[in-house]
Amino acid sequence: MHAYVIGEERKHSSYFVCCPGCSQVLTLNTQNEATKPRWTETGSLEEGTLTIRASIWHTPDGCGWYSWLNQGIFTSV
Ligand SMILES: [Zn+2]
Description:
Number of domains: 1
Radius of gyration: 12 Å
Distance between the termini: 15 Å
Low-confidence stretches: none
Strand content: over 45%
Strand order of the largest sheet: 4-5-6-7
Bound molecules: zinc ion
């Protein structure tokens, strides 16, 4: 399972595919402070180590999958 960060400069969003069995493409907006839940960027875009730390809960219209994303790895809860 992978997450992708796309865009230029700091104006980017992240996209990832939800758990097997759901496979819905979800978007994480890392820019809009008003958007909840919040996503925290870690690492460096320049050094190729940029990643996101976030809790993901695919609701209310999703499959209900809940997971942590840290260092590019999803951990189901
Ligand atoms: Zn899902």
